[in-house]
Amino acid sequence: LCTLSYAELGTVIPESGGEFIYILRIYGSCPAFFAAYTTIIVLKPFGATAAALSVAEYVIAPFYPDCHPPELVVKCAAAVAILVVTIVNVINVRVAIRIQVIFLVAKVLALTVIVIGGIVELVQSSSVIVENLKVENAFKGTQYSLNNLGMAFYQGLWAYGGWYNLNYVYEELKRPEVNLLRAVIIAFSLVTGLYLLVNVSYLTVMTPKELMSSSAVAVTWGNKVFGSWGWIMSVAAALSAFGSLNGSYYSGGRVCFVAAREGHMPDILAMAHVHRLTPSPALIFTTIISLLVLIPGDFQSIVNYFSFSAWIFYGITLSGLIYLKIKKPELPRSYRVPIILPILVLLAAICLVLAPIIDDPQIEYLYVTLFILSGAIIYIPFIHYKLCPKLLTKLTVFLQLFLEVAPEDKNL
Hints:
Blueprint: H1 2-12, H2 19-27, H3 29-60, H4 71-91, H5 93-124, H6 127-132, H7 135-138, H8 146-158, H9 165-168, H10 176-205, H11 208-213, H12 217-226, H13 231-261, E1 271-273, H14 280-294, H15 299-327, H16 340-358, H17 363-373, H18 375-384, H19 390-403, E2 405-407
Antiparallel strand pairs: 1-2
Helix pairs in contact: 1-10, 2-3, 2-15, 3-4, 3-13, 3-14, 3-15, 3-18, 4-13, 4-14, 5-10, 5-13, 8-15, 8-16, 12-13, 13-14, 15-16
């Protein structure tokens, strides 16, 4: 539902930038700045770090078959993954896109192998999945509370993240008024169908306890099905996660670029390399934040904080779509969703934001909220009153010369 709603927003406001540009055009400068500030400082770096940790877990897992790998080793591998993706995206946009296609194929192949393996196991014996799907086993040990429900949705919906990426790079699409909707429908249908079948395959081979205790589920599944060849699944899963990381970087750099282009971030972030035409300052900035987040963070906490922050702005964005459908139905758009869809998603967003803090409030979510609101310290003097310290101007000139970047036009 959220994907289809975003597709309509993309046709009404045909610009790159995702939530930032939509909130800017609908609600104005102040809320748009908070969206950009949160996306650039929290969402994109946190999302990239979580994806990098997934890559690291799958790369390292075969070397520690009987135990969890050391945290330091995982984080070092994640840092390497982040740096590799940064270098690729800084050097050449076309290479980054080709890598994305290659890893997409690898991901689909890996998921297909898991599905086929699950079917074979199911034909040979259905005892495991029958036992797993019994109500007393499926929900054994479940703790029912709003907080746990919210956390479960955060972790589950993370796997479907990426549905919004095309809205961040709208201006770089060919015939976006047609291809945006087509792409999201095909991608989301394919992903949902494959993920559903993959989970059935997991339950055909593994018990719920094994699923919850495994740090790399595909590897555990591969070891049980393929034995000594289980490492193949580790490679395939790592390639899939690396593709997600690359996609996050490809779209995330554009958010910095568009926000800076609109005057909501330092000018240096709106510049592109004079020869490669890549938004290298924005990509490097995202990398620095991602590496800092990686130091103290763990996967589950990072995903929870990412999801909590993200659904705040998903909700605001969808409320904007509802406003446009009611107040400005005459705006040209090549595609419309029934108004009930964004309303339902808005209600879901409100529940997902409130669930973790009503039932069992944790101080970390207060910190995240205060951090988002702290953007006012930057917005009031530098965006609203347009103050520009001389030091910032000198730093911009230095970085511009050092990075060989220059202001770009609207299209990269």
